[in-house]
Amino acid sequence: VTLLEKFHSGDVRALARIISIVENGAEGYREILDRLYGRAGTALRLGFTGPPGAGKSSLVNALAKQYLSTGKKVGVIAVDPTSPFTGGALLGDRVRMTEFPSDGSFYFRSMATRGASGGLSSATDNVSIVYDSFGFDVTLIETVGVGQVEIDVIDQCDTVTVILVPESGDAVQTMKAGLMEIGDVFCINKSDRPGAERIRHELRSTLGTRKTDQGAWPIPIVATVATREEGTDTLRAAIDDHISFIKASGQFESHRRAQLKKKILNILKNRFQREFIGRMTGEMDFDQLLDEIRSGSTSPFEVSDRLYRQFGMLD
Ligand SMILES: Nc1nc2c(ncn2[C@@H]2O[C@H](COP(=O)(O)OP(=O)(O)O)[C@@H](O)[C@H]2O)c(=O)[nH]1
Ligand SMILES: [Mg+2]
User: Which of 82, 96, 110, 227 to mutate for ligand 1's pocket (most ligand atoms within 8 Å of CB)?
Assistant: First the structure.
């Protein structure tokens, strides 16, 4: 029996192995993905982002339980941008996982930000495809709301929930962190703490200034206490509403198509970079070109033009 056959029969160890192969871009990962795409495309991708300690993992766990309790199969991807130093946090995630079933209806993967930009978002996308074709109904993706890599990951989600806490400070700070633009649903977690009402009001008035066209999605703000699973059913309902809304409006499909196009262009770009530029510059006598530039007889632009032309790419 092949690995893929085991995978399709619901074997969790085959799932784990395929995830590792795909995540690492190991031998054969391309062929695996080629086959999996035919069976993927229906799982929802739900993103959760917000400052460290806001309660993203706690909320994702609570929501995972809810989806499981209604018979849905759930995959989780936790993106940890500070990987080398968060052994504790990752361990915490793992400990919590003992509350979850190991019968193939649930899987958790934590991924570290890699050096190469773009590498992580394509890895999370590929792992989501694996989950999807394994038969999961929802993929919950947790990421800290910072750099471009995390934004790329969040971009791939159908619905983005931004999680704030009373301690997040004023709404202006949140806007500066770039979180305002990307949320479809806002969640004020740790609503058991003082200041929850205040941040809710500030958020409401700040969101009010976001361009709202006629018939646009009315962005909900949900208060939760993740650790007591309070408000998490309301949060889930808000997310489900958003999915229904974008499916009815056509945004769901157009967003997915846009993401696929972006992926194709990205694959091409990487391939060009690897193969074409490698071939172009592999046997190049750079020293001489650099001498010419240093002596002032040409510029990096002219040199690139010359190289480009040499390969018949520039008329
Ligand atoms: N008081 C309170 N603590 C919470 C709540 N949600 C999470 N926490 C705690 O906040 C800390 C950070 O939570 P975690 O889910 O790991 O946050 P993350 O870094 O955003 O993933 C943990 O100690 C949680 O137990 C909440 O609603 N109220
Ligand atoms: Mg976390």
Answer: 227
Ligand 1: which of 58, 144, 164 to mutate, most ligand atoms within 8 Å of CB? 58
Give the residue, by CA position, lying nearest to ligand 1 atom 9: 55
Among 210, 214, 213, 230, residue whose Cα is nearest residue 222:
230
What's the gap in Å between 48 CA and the centre of ligand 2? 10
Model pTM?
0.88
Print pLDDT tens along the chain (315 aa): 799 999 999 999 999 999 999 988 889 999 999 999 998 889 999 999 988 888 999 999 999 999 999 999 999 999 865 544 444 445 445 545 677 888 899 999 888 765 444 478 888 999 999 999 999 999 999 988 667 777 888 899 999 999 999 877 666 666 666 777 889 999 999 999 998 888 888 888 888 766 666 778 999 999 999 999 999 999 999 999 999 999 999 999 999 999 999 999 999 988 888 887 777 777 778 899 999 999 999 999 999 888 888 776 655
Q: Which residue shows structure tokens 């690897």?
A: 274
Residue 173 DSSP SS3: helix
Alpha-carbon distance values, 260 to 22, 24, 190 (Å) = 18, 21, 36
